[in-house]
Specification:
Blueprint: H1 24-29, H2 35-39, E1 45-48, E2 51-52, E3 63-74, E4 83-88, E5 93-98, H3 103-109, E6 115-121, E7 123-125, E8 128-132, E9 136-138, E10 149-152, H4 161-173, H5 184-190, H6 195-203, H7 216-242, H8 253-261, H9 268-282, E11 288-293, H10 299-312, E12 316-320, H11 324-341, E13 345-348, H12 354-366, E14 371-374, E15 388-394, H13 401-408, E16 415-420, H14 426-433, E17 437-441, E18 451-457, H15 461-473, E19 477-481, H16 489-507, E20 512-515, H17 521-533, E21 538-541, E22 554-560, H18 567-574, E23 584-590, H19 596-607, H20 611-622, H21 628-632, H22 647-663, H23 670-681, H24 685-688
Parallel strand pairs: 2-3, 5-8, 11-16, 11-17, 12-14, 12-15, 13-14, 15-16, 18-23, 19-21, 19-22, 20-21, 22-23
Antiparallel strand pairs: 1-10, 3-4, 3-6, 4-5, 6-9, 7-8
Helix pairs in contact: 6-7, 7-22, 8-10, 8-11, 9-10, 14-22, 18-20, 19-20
The chain binds adenosine-5'-diphosphate (ADP) and magnesium ion.
Length: 694
């Protein structure tokens, strides 16, 4: 139950001054539906409205607040010319400028001879300072003059800054004194204020620096957010660790047979990761480990070795893939190796039906098959295992945590290995996967040829198609990816269909196949199969080209409107080529002109094929919120913490959280009770349920 002290903060945003049924939806757009959301809405900037002596020396474009004596009004002589009022700030004359003015109104608010305080942007025109349309005109005898720093909030149509500021003032007035949940010594060492003071500094800044990422108040709030998140993960982790696992330690015979049969050696990274996994499996606690590695890094093989370890110990293993195509691909790849190992493998997907399905289910239940590869179909209720010791989940972000756990529930104390091909920077991995242990395959199998990556303007589309035609004539196969036009697959689809039609006209009717999310599974498979066998040379696709799809003969990747994709996503798409022996290329077709950041981002791709480096660069260039790979990886959205800037705090938060849980698993000490308040404040009510539950 949410503590009473937080009730006012969790009241509807309509309790805020100036927020009513009409404006509430606008606040909703800013992510503000309750009072607490307003407090956690960070300003996007600060305007310095401190009263100055004069506009003299003000930089062009700077906002200036000065006390002036109003002088002459110049009514425009011709239509369209501005209305001008000369004022004097005691040091010099400057001009207030109004377009489309109402003279009577201006005469009333700026009567000649009177003193007013004006605040607005300064421009220089013909050597004379001007203030076009001041933001504020105040009669100091009647109203409070602006003085100090004013936060500016993200804009949304229909809401002006004044209204938001008013709502926030009332939100601040509702902020209660909360018990301190941070360690006192740590707070002092960091020089961080108490929570309510920090929130006040954010919305009533005393300097422009107060809202910066490195301001003490901002850091404190960011740390609160990070700690609550890490604490929630640590509680989940602790609960899982309390549940007993099993000791799985095979004799290695099957693994040796498979490794001996491979035409290559394991990479150092594969050996290391496998070792970490064996250690976890041999431990009596349950394993939850993430195996992270770029596309093609050889994760599947590591997973197979782990599964063989389970089978050697007399158990079974399951490998769950997010799509039918991927499941089939895994099955086809693993089958010969399982034969070598002398064990049985079976496939279970949504398309396994009738008697075939019944037979497979019976074999799984009897323990007659050792490894099961499948899709979501794996955790349906009629699937029972004889003894599931290890569950492997591929492309984990496509599954929810619950699905992962449901699969593991099919065994007793089942170990879990999760695989992800989305390279994310270490800091982000901590944010998203703080409850897991992590192994990284940071070394590619040898012999991969580099992919030549080029940026070409869409204006040169014809040339690109010409080169494509020449390449196809020599036997090449190419992917052509059409972008997300909008968040609507209807529009995407239309764009992809247009492109397929155009390419068919240029390259021949039979040379091009189209695949997209709206096709029936069988149709998708047919398009993929035609491409795989070489029947068609070009596969036009929306971004559904499944992560992990393997067509070694494809050597060309064209990505249209590359500027609209996240770097991580581009990197993954590019990873579809360069899988066979042929030299491969990737064409980033962009719509010019490119902005500076966009150009820099695409250039990173040209420079490196290291997915982790690319992810780090993307994080730096765009910040965490925008990272497509991040959203893909299912990372939480932070409101006050900026993972690009507060990454160092994230590691501290993780250690802090694990320490708290190891010392006060029930959150019963004084600090523990305060930490419960923090968890509720941050909307992590879920994790409270884990307290004490075995
Ligand atoms: P991932 O699942 O990480 O995308 P895969 O496991 O599918 O990568 O491996 C990609 C390809 O590389 C497969 O054809 C696999 O047989 C091969 N491979 C895996 N490990 C090695 C290695 N150590 N040396 C050479 N090739 C390897
Ligand atoms: Mg794979």
């Amino acid at each position: 139950m949410r503590p009473e002290i937080l009730f006012p903060l969790f009241a509807s945003a309509t309790k805020l001054d100036g927020v009513g049924p009409k404006t509430a939806p606008l606040y909703e757009k800013l992510g503000v539906s309750r009072v607490v959301d307003a407090l956690f809405l960070p300003p996007s900037g600060v305007i310095d409205r401190r009263l100055r002596d004069s506009v003299q020396g003000a930089a062009e474009g700077a906002t200036v607040t000065v006390r002036v004596t109003v002088g002459r009004h110049s009514v425009p002589g011709r239509r369209g010319a501005p209305y001008r009022i000369t004022v004097n700030d005691g040091v010099l004359d400057f001009v207030l400028v109004f377009f489309h003015a109402h003279p009577e109104y201006l005469m009333r608010i700026l009567p000649a001879g009177e003193v007013r305080i004006v605040s607005g942007k300064i421009e220089i025109y013909d050597g004379v300072a001007q203030m076009p349309h001041p933001d504020m005109i105040v009669n100091p005898e009647e109203d409070d003059a602006p003085d100090g720093f004013e936060p500016v909030y993200p804009a949304t149509a229909g809401l002006n800054q004044k209204a938001i500021a008013k709502a926030l003032r009332s939100a601040l007035s509702k902020a209660p004194d909360l018990p301190e949940w941070q360690d006192a010594a740590w707070l002092e060492k960091q020089g961080w204020p108490a929570w309510d003071e920090a929130v006040r500094a954010l919305h009533a800044p005393q300097s422009a620096g107060d809202i910066e990422a490195d301001a003490p108040s901002r850091q404190r709030l960011a740390y609160d957010e990070l700690l609550s998140h890490q604490l929630a993960l640590a509680l989940v982790r602790a609960r899982r660790r309390r549940a007993k696992g099993r000791i799985t330690q095979g004799d290695g015979t099957m693994r040796q047979r498979v490794i001996a049969a491979l035409p290559f050696d394991l990479t150092g990274a594969q050996k290391r990761a496998a070792g970490e996994i064996y250690d976890d499996m041999a431990d009596e606690q349950r394993m939850l480990r993430l195996l992270q590695g770029d596309v093609g890094a050889g994760k599947t093989l590591v997973a197979l070795l782990a599964m063989l370890n389970a089978v050697e110990s007399g158990g079974q293993a399951a490998l769950m893939a997010p799509t039918e195509i991927l499941a089939r691909q895994h099955f086809a790849g693993l089958e010969p190796l399982c034969e070598t190992a002398g064990i049985r493998l079976t496939l279970l997907t949504g398309r396994s039906k009738g008697a075939v399905r019944q037979d497979r289910l019976a074999d799984i239940a009897a323990g007659a098959v050792h490894i099961v590869v499948g899709t979501h179909a794996l955790f349906q209720s009629d699937v029972t295992f004889h003894d599931l010791r290890l569950a492997v989940v591929d492309e984990q972000h496509r599954f929810g945590v619950n699905q992962r756990n449901e699969l593991a529930e099919k065994g007793a104390g089942t170990d879990i290995l999760v695989m992800s091909a989305t390279p994310i920077p270490r800091t982000l991995a901590l944010a998203g996967y703080g409850d897991m242990d992590i192994s990284v395959l940071d070394e590619k199998p040898p012999g991969r040829k580099p992919i030549e990556t080029r940026m070409i303007s869409l204006a040169r589309y014809d040339q690109v198609v010409e080169s494509l035609r020449a390449a196809i004539a020599k036997g090449a196969r190419a992917y052509w990816i059409c972008p997300l036009v909008e968040e609507s697959d209807v529009v995407d689809l239309a764009a992809a269909e247009d492109r397929a039609r155009a390419l068919r006209r240029s390259l021949g009717e039979d040379a091009v196949a189209l695949t997209h999310g709206r096709l029936k599974p069988a149709e998708k498979d047919a398009a993929m199969a035609a491409f795989k066998t070489g029947q068609v040379k070009v596969l036009v696709a929306t971004t559904v080209v499944e992560v992990g799809v393997d067509v070694p003969e494809a050597t060309i990747m064209v990505i249209e409107h590359a500027e609209r994709f996240g770097l991580a996503q581009l990197h993954q798409l590019r990873g579809r080529v360069g899988r066979g022996g042929g030299a491969s290329s990737c064409v980033l077709l962009y719509q010019g002109p490119l902005g500076e950041t966009a150009a820099a981002r695409l250039a990173v791709l040209r420079e490196t094929e290291d997915g982790f480096r690319i992810a780090e660069e993307d994080l730096k260039l765009r910040g965490a919120g925008d990272l497509l790979g991040v959203r893909q990886a299912g990372l939480p959205k932070m409101r006050l913490a900026d993972l690009a800037k507060h990454g160092n705090l994230l590691e501290v938060a993780r250690d802090d959280a694990r320490l708290i849980v190891s010392q006060d698993a029930e959150l019963r000490t004084g600090r523990g009770e305060a930490l419960r308040v923090l968890l509720y404040l941050m909307g992590r009510d879920d994790s409270i349920r884990y307290l004490g539950a075995a």
